[in-house]
């Protein structure tokens, strides 16, 4: 491989220092030990690897500095800079004959030792290497064992040139009236249904399932005041059929339970393909159940942090009354410009009303203002909204990255969802890249 020198603008050390490039052939800019061994024949014997100590010193202008003390007491400084497909490594020994030196090998071996890989992506922040952008947008924490680079909370998720959103990529986008409820008398036993979900931070532990429960109404008969037990499919063979369509709802509940239970009880690493298929199936079951639930009284939501810890006795404080609404939420995206950056956010629209989303489990929006529960229009809408909210509903792209951001993300997004540009006066216009570019005088 032909060696090359790092770009002048990224250097914080003598400009003539040689940097050796190592290809990053794995996804997500991972450096593997196998790739390292292609550039330096690993020495045999344990002694050569023992007693060497390395520590991170700084991360400035895109270069991470590592202090290496070998087991013979000699000290070297290594400099790491990440490009999209390469890791560039420099050393104070100047790397004679422009070959990867032993000091660099030991440093990189130590970094890849624990998991046989090193995540170079955490050092890849193009267009944020200058001090102004770095201080404004990033929080950088350097410790002896690690470098942590995080986007400041007020900027949400930042678009990075050539890799987009990195490990936090969005889901794949594919183009695409009042009812009379049968209220029972007061102090009466009822058979009702709960939407059991894990809250935002824990939502990926399981998908929401429908679970019947036994309870008792208050004196008015308008709400459930006591929750006796869940009707678990594997423990209650003949569930109640007090209401019309109750048999269908019980069958849907049982199918959801049987899909989700074995997945959450497995101890090995989850099979993402199996979970993805389960997600699509359970979402389809919810679409079948929703018209029946909209006619059903005493619906509730139930906080269920761990599916495998679901017990027959409900926790009353986790129960919350709700009503299902058959309207589907739609997503609309807003783009704004702030001198040196663009911000993208999403609005959730139900009917003609924009609603604030504070709780967002999988599949549903829980409107705290009205107590209504809305099922998302599709799995794609659900995944995209979750991704946006997990990013604090703010995607940031620097002005100099906007052309790439438009090409790699906004064009595809606009094929599936409306995007509006909001100017300083608050006026909204349909997003058009060419019109926006000419309007801003680029």
Could you characterize what this model shows?
This protein has 442 residues and is of the alpha+beta class. The chain has three domains: 8-151, no CATH class; 189-323, no CATH class; 330-439, no CATH class. The protein has eight helices and 24 strands. The strands form six sheets. Strands 10, 17, 18, 19, 22, 23 and 24 form a seven-stranded mixed beta sheet that branches. A five-stranded antiparallel beta sheet has the order 1-6-5-4-3, covered by helices on one side. The protein has a five-stranded mixed beta sheet with strand order 13-12-11-14-15. A hairpin with a 2-residue loop joins strand 3 (53-60) and strand 4. The longest helix has 23 residues, at 272-294. The chain is globular and about 85 Å long. It starts with 18 loop residues before the first strand and ends with a helix. Mean pLDDT is 89; it is low at 5-11 and 177-181.
Secondary-structure blueprint:
Blueprint: E1 19-23, E2 30-32, H1 33-37, E3 53-60, E4 63-69, E5 75-82, E6 86-91, H2 102-112, E7 117-119, H3 131-137, E8 138-142, E9 147-151, E10 157-158, E11 189-197, E12 209-217, E13 224-230, H4 246-265, H5 272-294, E14 300-303, E15 319-321, E16 323-325, E17 330-338, E18 341-350, E19 353-355, E20 364-367, E21 372-375, H6 379-390, E22 395-398, H7 402-414, E23 419-422, E24 428-430, H8 433-439
Parallel strand pairs: 10-22, 11-14, 16-21, 17-23
Antiparallel strand pairs: 1-6, 2-7, 3-4, 4-5, 5-6, 8-9, 11-12, 12-13, 14-15, 17-18, 18-19, 18-22, 20-21, 23-24
Keywords: Metal-binding, Zinc, Zinc-finger
Domain SWIM-type: 76-112
Protein name: SWIM-type domain-containing protein
């Amino acid at each position: 491989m032909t060696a090359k020198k790092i770009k002048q603008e990224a250097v914080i050390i003598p400009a003539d220092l040689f940097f050796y490039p190592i290809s990053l052939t794995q996804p997500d800019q991972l450096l593997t030990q196998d790739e390292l061994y292609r550039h330096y024949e690993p020495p045999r014997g344990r002694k050569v690897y023992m007693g060497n100590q390395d520590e991170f010193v700084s991360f400035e202008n895109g270069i991470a500095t590592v202090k290496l003390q070998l087991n013979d007491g000699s000290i070297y400084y290594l400099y790491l800079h990440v490009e999209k497909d390469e890791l560039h490594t420099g050393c104070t020994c100047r790397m004679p004959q422009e070959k990867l030196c032993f000091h660099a090998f030991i440093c990189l071996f130590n970094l890849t030792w624990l998991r046989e890989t090193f995540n170079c992506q955490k050092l890849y922040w193009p267009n944020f290497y200058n001090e102004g952008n770095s201080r404004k947008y990033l929080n950088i924490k350097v410790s002896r064992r690690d470098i942590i680079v995080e986007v400041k909370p007020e900027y949400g998720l930042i678009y990075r040139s050539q890799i987009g959103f990195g490990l936090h990529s969005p889901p794949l986008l594919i183009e695409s009236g009042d009812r009379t409820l049968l209220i029972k008398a007061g102090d009466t036993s009822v058979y009702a249904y709960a939407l059991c979900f894990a809250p935002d931070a824990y939502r990926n532990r399981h998908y929401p399932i429908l679970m019947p429960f036994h309870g008792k109404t208050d004196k008015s008969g308008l709400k459930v005041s006591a929750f006796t037990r869940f009707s678990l499919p594997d423990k209650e063979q003949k569930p109640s059929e007090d209401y019309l369509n109750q048999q269908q709802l019980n069958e849907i509940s049982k199918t959801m339970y049987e899909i989700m239970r074995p997945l959450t009880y497995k101890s090995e690493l989850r099979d993402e393909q199996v979970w993805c298929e389960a997600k699509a199936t359970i979402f389809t079951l919810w679409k079948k159940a929703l018209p029946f639930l909209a006619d059903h009284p005493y619906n509730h939501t139930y906080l269920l942090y761990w599916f495998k810890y679901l017990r027959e006795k409900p926790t009353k404080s986790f129960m919350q009354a709700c009503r299902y609404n058959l309207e589907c939420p739609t997503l609309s995206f807003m783009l704004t410009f702030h001198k040196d950056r663009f911000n993208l956010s999403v609005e959730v629209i139900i009917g003609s009303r924009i609603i604030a989303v504070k709780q967002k489990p999988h599949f549903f929006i829980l409107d705290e203002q009205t107590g209504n529960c809305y099922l998302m229009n599709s799995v794609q809408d659900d995944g995209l909204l979750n991704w946006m909210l997990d990013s604090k509903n703010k995607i940031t792209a620097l002005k100099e990255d906007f052309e790439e951001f438009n090409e790699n993300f906004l064009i595809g997004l606009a094929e599936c969802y409306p995007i509006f540009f909001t100017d300083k006066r608050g006026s909204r216009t349909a997003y058009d890249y060419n019109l926006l570019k000419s309007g801003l005088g680029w």
